[in-house]
């Protein structure tokens, strides 16, 4: 899911606090338990409320759902960990859970999984493995997954003389940008109506940018910006494997080539300036007609299709020299170590990861459930609505996905690399120079 790191509060070291006492946001006695459950995506409240109602009917355990926006979610969660009042269960992210495990603020669930014979093979390949810590213990069951693709304004595409096939079959390389660079040039229009591929285009007075994406310095994975392009050159973030690698390769020339290309596109006026990416945001820019094409995660599909008056379609990312690739991320639900109701919390976590609940999630068609049969439910719902999201699923069919980095100290790494990415996209420093300096900081953070 969407990442934004700059104002995030560090995970507190709660082990000593947890040893001293245990309490929970949950309430009730043994016969009337209410679990507190937190999530960050407001678009998913209806399906999880439906799941909670069914769960209560079956178990007698009540569930109170609380939603916070992404930034506030992690800030509030960390505060509650420190105060020993964290919710009984909460939606967890791969970027954060290694620190939660390290600080002993979430419970391992492997004994519950084994006792109840939960079938880990029912989920998409690789998703269940992501939630096994370095200690060999399990800390979550898969609930959904996501990949990255392109949302485009089909009216703007047609006005530029481009077709669906042009975008679906686009190629990219960091030297001349392939056909993808031509596409975003043609989609870029200055205030005088001149397109980016025409003489006289003014990159300082752009009315519509060809391409936009989430703030690229938000995550050291480059999840919704440069990461997938670099992977199509053969770049791998961790030299010693993922999950749990520590040997980052930010000084790899292939990453420098990728980010230099993005910097050139910003300077050319084909890509939204960094100030807008960090301010208004790419979805708002797309909605306003200031952007024709946007790199986005599958979790944001409904944010685009819900835009009134804009015809939106989707396409996979362009094919690079070593293929078309997308980062592959998954979420799970975690149990707080301070819960007063671990057994009931486990029942809720197990239910959230079950086909019964994931079918409800699939039917609402907001995200992709972790169980293939539940995804089919979602695909049928989208088909009835006339929505084609195969741009996001094509990577699984071709097995061209790579895992979101699961490693410790990722927030600190992101801060170091994010500053370097900012310098590159602002044109203040060549990518190789900025990334070499960032790599030195990262090596220090990782104790290498």
Automatic annotation (TrEMBL):
* Cell compartment(s), UniProt: Cell envelope
Please verify whether the record's keywords include Transmembrane: no
Q: Among its keywords, does the record have Iron-sulfur?
A: no
Instruction: List each coiled-coil range.
Output: none
One family name in Pfam for this protein:
SBP_bac_8
- Signal peptide range in chain numbering: 1-24
An example of a Gene Ontology cellular component annotation for this protein is: cell envelope
Q: What keywords appear on the UniProt entry?
A: Signal, Transport
Q: Which family does it belong to?
A: Belongs to the bacterial solute-binding protein 1 family.
Q: Name the chain's protein.
A: Sugar ABC transporter substrate-binding protein
Q: Which organism is it from?
A: Micromonospora zingiberis
């Amino acid at each position: 899911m969407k990442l934004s790191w700059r104002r995030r509060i560090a995970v507190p070291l709660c082990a000593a606090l947890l040893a001293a006492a245990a309490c929970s946001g949950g309430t009730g006695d043994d016969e009337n338990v209410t679990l507190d459950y937190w999530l960050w995506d407001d678009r998913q409240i209806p399906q999880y409320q439906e799941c909670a109602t069914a769960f209560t009917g079956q178990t007698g355990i009540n569930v109170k759902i609380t939603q916070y926006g992404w930034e506030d979610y992690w800030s509030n969660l960390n505060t509650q960990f420190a105060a020993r009042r964290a919710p009984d269960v909460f939606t967890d992210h791969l970027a954060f859970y290694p620190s939660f495990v390290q600080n002993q603020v979430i419970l391992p669930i492997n004994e519950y999984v084994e006792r109840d014979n939960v079938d880990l093979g029912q989920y998409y390949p690789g998703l269940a493995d992501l939630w096994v810590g370095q200690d060999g213990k399990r800390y979550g069951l898969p609930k959904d997954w996501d990949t990255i693709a392109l949302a485009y304004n089909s009216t703007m595409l047609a006005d530029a003389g481009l077709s669906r096939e042009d975008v679906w079959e686009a190629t990219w390389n960091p030297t001349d940008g392939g056909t993808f660079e031509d596409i975003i040039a043609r989609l870029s229009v200055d205030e005088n109506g001149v397109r980016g591929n025409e003489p006289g285009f003014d990159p300082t007075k752009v009315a519509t940018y060809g391409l936009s994406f989430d703030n690229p310095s938000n995550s050291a994975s480059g999840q919704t910006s440069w990461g997938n392009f670099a992977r199509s050159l053969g770049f791998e973030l961790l030299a010693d494997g993922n999950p749990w690698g520590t040997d980052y390769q930010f000084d790899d020339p292939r990453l420098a080539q990728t980010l230099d290309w993005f910097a050139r596109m910003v300077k050319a006026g084909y890509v939204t300036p960094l100030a807008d990416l960090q301010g208004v945001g790419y979805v708002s820019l797309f909605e306003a007609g200031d952007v024709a094409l946007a790199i986005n995660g599958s979790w944001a599909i409904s944010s685009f299709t819900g835009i009134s008056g804009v015809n939106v379609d989707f396409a996979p990312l362009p094919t690079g020299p070593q293929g078309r690739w997308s980062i592959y991320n998954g979420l799970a639900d975690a149990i707080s170590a301070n819960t007063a109701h671990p057994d009931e919390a486990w029942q809720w976590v197990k239910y959230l990861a079950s086909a019964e609940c994931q079918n409800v999630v699939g039917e609402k068609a907001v995200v992709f459930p972790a169980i293939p049969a539940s995804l089919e439910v979602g695909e049928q719902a989208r088909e009835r609505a006339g929505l084609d999201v195969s741009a996001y699923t094509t990577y699984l069919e071709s097995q061209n996905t790579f895992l979101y980095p699961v490693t410790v100290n990722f927030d600190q790494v992101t801060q170091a690399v994010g500053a370097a990415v900012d310098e590159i996209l602002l044109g203040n420093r060549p990518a190789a120079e900025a990334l070499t300096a960032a790599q030195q900081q990262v090596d220090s953070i990782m104790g290498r």
